[in-house]
Amino acid sequence: MDNHSGDLTVLQINDTHAYVEPHYEVFAAGGRMEYRVAGGYAAIATLVQQARDEKKGQVLLLDSGDTFHGTYSAVQTKGQALVPVMNALGVDAMTAHWEFAYGPEQFRNLSFDLDYPVLAINCYQRSSGRLVFPPFLVREVGDLKIGVIGIAATIVDKGMPPSFSTGLFFTDGRKELPQYITDLRSEERVDLIVLLSHLGLPQDIGLAETIEGIDLIVSGHTHNRLDEPIRINHTLICQSGCHGSFVGRLDLSVQDRRIRSARHELIPIIGIEQDPSVRDLVEQAVGPYREYLEAVVGTTRTPLNRATILESTMDNLLLAAVQKAAGTTIAFSHGWRYGAPVPAGQVTRNDLWNMIPTNPEVMTVSLTGAEIGFIFEENLEKTFSSDPFMQMGGYLKRCSGLTVYCKLENPPGYRVQGIFTTTGRLDPLQEYTVAYVSSQAINAACGHDRVGTGTDAIAALEDLLGTGPVEAPLVGSVVAV
């Protein structure tokens, strides 16, 4: 008998960014933001085991990627410190994005140490055209046969530093996906197709609208907290926040190769007892660095977070440090989504490494006003493109010393309405010395005279915080008009 009926529970984590321990998370609360301690893999392990006990093992635990990069212990060990923790959870499969930050060879080696596969139908060796990772996994869960197809982030070789994709190229998976769905249905006779994606919610919605046969998309990359799944035709889409602050749980009833009923819960990882064995593994990962990371380096009067898309308090603090280190009035940084919030009060060195775990050098570059305008137009298109498959940025590029007025609904190349410095409108012909941090902040084709300051981002932040309590409020650096 090819078709089966049965129940299945899918648990999802995505964009945990190596946050193995409890940390502050930001929650919207009407006209204010609340900061509450959440997350931690020892608590996630308890939740996962409870579901497995309840459902007698009829559970799939899927990880949408951005898992092995983002905190100090992960970066210092190139992801290796997290391997025992992740193996202890019993993950069934993952896909990837920031994992490539250590270079393809290191990530490939790291994947060999995992007890579960990395899946990607869209990551190829440039020399041979062969897939780097398995494209799918077939797993029998109770009476059901499940096909899990992986799609890694498509931007690794387009918007990330070149070292991330040495010898590789990535597609968006749209051409490959239909054939894998057909093969899994006809040859493997699976009852359910699950797409494990790190494309981001807009692109996953685009896939669901244009490609038939996907029952469930387990989405990542854009850090959406979906209290309810999105339904597109016969496809459900789930995504579960970031930093391991939430686990998504989807209880499914499947009959005749179709989801007949679904109950979803986005579970905050708050007040959940920690699994002792996983807690010990977490301590082995973090313990060697704890004394260094727990050092208090200053005080902030402004709560710091990256929860806002046009500008953020966390990045305003980073930009102030970059300006001070470089001695410029204008500064840029990339619009990262990750970074655990920091409530007003003491700031530790761990907070700084969470803020910018890549710790790049503060640089300066000479840009014309016209180039600055081009940089913003390009970034606005990558962030707000009407074509979801052209959305390849994080949040909007961060800036200080400028005020940018823009119309987000305008077509590409016509969104910027005006850019002003502290002394007046930006002159397209004038050259400006601009400080920046991260190669993603300034288009490599723009500007000249790139010069390093000899100061890295963490040192710049510590120097600024060492001057006394800091403030980094939202100031309207980018204004949608």
Number of H/I helices: 12
From the spread of the alpha carbons, the general shape counts as: globular
Major sheet summary line: 6 strands, mixed
Q: How many strand segments?
A: 26
CA-atom Rg in angstroms? 23 Å
Describe this structure in words.
- The radius of gyration is 23 Å and the shape is globular.
- The strands form 7 sheets. A 6-stranded mixed beta sheet has the order 7-8-10-11-13-12, with helices on one face.
- By secondary structure, it is of the alpha/beta class.
- The relative contact order is 0.14.
- The chain contains 12 helices and 26 strands.
- The protein starts with 5 loop residues before the first strand and ends with a strand.
- α1 (41-54) runs parallel beside α3.
